[in-house]
Design goal:
Layout (H helix, E strand, L loop, with lengths): L7 H10 L1 E4 L5 H14 L15 E4 L4 H7 L2 H11 L4 E11 L20 H5 L7 E6 L11 E2 L3 H11 L13 E2 L27 E2 L7 E4 L5 E2 L9 E10 L6 E2 H17 L17
Antiparallel strand pairs: 1-8, 2-3, 3-10, 4-8, 4-10, 5-7, 5-9, 6-11
Helix pairs in contact: 2-3
This protein binds fe (ii) ion (FE2).
The site of fe (ii) ion has 4 residues, from loops.
Length: 287
């Protein structure tokens, strides 16, 4: 599929900033079916003074037809291939998240973090050695409706520092809970980091990812990012598909690998026969 694919300029923007919002060919029917199913699975919960101020709900390991039709849509595979500079990709995860309105709650940025650690060589390799996430918006998101907040370019600053200052002390993910990671090659790895682990650099101010229903935001979660509160009257609704290049080793917790293997076997059974290659990685974990 060539139509609506990321342009070279959009790919360059994604490389530079760590996020880019794009149009998709999803139809009203795709969106309506997915939104209705999300509302069934994640019913509204009245926000009360006892509720967490950043309450949201979600579901992982999606196998419902209304979601699978989007997950397996060729557009997303081709967009992921282009953004990852890869001839083939696999689905790494798929989940939905709903952030209900929180009336009388001021807009606020929540805990900043990253979910992936990379070096410059990971960011620049062909294919890219990393995971990306395609956030597909089922409802409009403006700058007050719990937008994802991110600091443009921070993934490159962190990767540069990681490259320039290789740690001499053991990295926390070099332990038996992780697979596909070795002392000689400590990245890429899927693990969380927070402000106390980041170098004292000048980062860009956080900016919101705003989009219309039916658009998607491609995100590199090695970029500093955070959730935010929903100060609007409507819920934020997101379907998230994680992709990685087929055959690329990404360090992660053993239990994540096992959960994904189980998910792949379930997803493969409900996908169209000609789309099942998205659930086969052709790489054996290195323990
Ligand atoms: Fe995150």
């Amino acid at each position: 599929m060539q139509c609506c694919q990321p342009t070279d300029q959009q790919v360059a923007l994604f490389d530079r900033d760590g996020a880019v919002t794009l149009d998709t060919p999803l139809t009203r029917r795709h969106l309506k079916d997915a939104e209705e199913l999300m509302d069934q699975l994640l019913p509204a919960v009245q926000s009360t003074s006892d509720a967490k101020p950043h309450y949201r709900s979600g579901q992982r390991f999606l196998t419902e037809p209304a979601f699978v039709r989007i997950i397996e849509h060729p557009f997303f595979e081709h967009a992921a291939k282009k953004l990852l500079h890869s001839h083939a990709v696999v689905v790494a995860s798929a989940n939905i998240t709903k952030t209900p309105p929180q009336p009388n709650t001021p807009f606020k940025i929540l805990t900043e973090h990253t979910d992936q650690v990379l070096r410059l060589s990971d960011l620049n390799s062909i294919p890219r050695k990393m995971q990306i996430h395609l956030y597909i918006w089922l409802a409009d998101v403006d700058d007050q409706c719990a937008p994802l907040m991110y600091r443009p370019g921070s993934h490159r600053q962190l990767a540069q520092h990681m490259t320039d200052h290789p740690k001499t002390d053991p990295l926390p993910w070099l332990n038996s809970n992780f697979v596909n990671v070795s002392k000689d090659c400590p990245t890429p790895v899927i693990t969380g980091t927070g402000p106390d682990q980041w170098p004292n650099l000048v980062y860009a101010d956080p900016v919101p990812c705003v989009a219309r229903a039916g658009q998607m935001t491609a995100v590199n979660l090695a970029t500093i990012h955070s959730a935010s509160t929903n100060a609007r009257l409507t819920a934020r609704k997101r379907l998230n598909i994680g992709f990685r290049p087929k055959g690329v080793m990404v360090g992660e917790m053993q239990k994540r690998v096992e959960a994904r293997d189980t998910y792949w076997s379930q997803l493969g059974k409900v996908m169209s026969p000609d789309r099942q290659h998205l659930t086969r990685n052709d790489v054996k974990p290195v323990i």
